[in-house]
UniProtKB/TrEMBL annotation:
One of its GO terms (biological process) is positive regulation of transcription by RNA polymerase II. It comes from the Eukaryota. GO terms for molecular function: DNA-binding transcription factor activity, RNA polymerase II-specific; E-box binding; protein dimerization activity. PANTHER family: BASIC HELIX-LOOP-HELIX PROTEIN NEUROGENIN-RELATED (PTHR19290), OLIGODENDROCYTE TRANSCRIPTION FACTOR 2 (PTHR19290:SF32). GO terms for cellular component: nucleus. It holds the Pfam family HLH. This is Oligodendrocyte lineage transcription factor 2. It comes from Fundulus heteroclitus (Killifish).
Amino acid sequence: MDSDTSRVSSRPSSPEVDDIFLSTLKKSVHGFSGAVSSTQSDSPSDIPGLRGLSAADEEALALRMASKKDRKLLSENELQAIRLKINSRERKRMHDLNVAMDGLREVMPYAHGPSVRKLSKIATLLLARNYILMLSNSLEEMKRLVSEIYGSSGHHGGFHPSACGTMTHAGPVPGHPGASHASHPAVHHPLLPPPPSTTSLSAPGISAVTSVRPHHGLLKAPAAGAGPLGSSFQHWGVGTGMPCPCSMCQVPPPHVSSMSSVTMPRLAGDSK
DNA sequence: TAGGCCATCTGGTCCT
DNA sequence: AGGACCAGATGGCCTA
């Protein structure tokens, strides 16, 4: 089972200090197991028991904090100040981690929005891994196709494998409007199993994708008919009669919201 | 009510 | 020595 629905809006990754204060206060009221029945603050001066400390007192405290073996000599309030400082650092560290996680979610091919439950951390990591593997594999596939099609002979005017073959414009660019979409029609969605008709996407990368995909039903069958290069091209290569494999020449991908509603019912279907 | 996910606290370890 | 990192414990919130 899952929850996160309301957490999207009601529970930010990094709660406000007041929230921390309240939650921790509740813990202390209920006899939290920690050595410190802490109230929350980023500054020892805000600790009720330490509010009376002067700057000189805090400096003296800091000096005494320098020696771990002396900590046993510290008063309860002083130990509390140390503990709160450490806790604050840990909160900040976790907050930064969550910010990074949010940044990762933003560039994942997954529907975003206030009405859509955000990916859990584990789902984000699994999706990201699959996405990277899929992109890497599709890149290799595109390179191979380009070399096969245009490698040994002249091709449509001005087309250089060194330009398109390196796929400098193939992938989603973080921050680009298309970055949050299933960005490349030539590939299936990273959470989807390989298309049945796929001939060359059976490389190790894709098999890895399928082998590591989440077990909890995040994946469903892909749209039918999408071949290794996708279902359609915008135009054909000039003079070659061959479809241009360049991703710029391909139709925009369908919006991922449809994907998410199908492949991640647990996540998108619970939106409210 | 059980289970999933999360934030926070905490103590230990590692690194600079 | 101090900070970063990690993992276990705890409790809250939410959904099925």
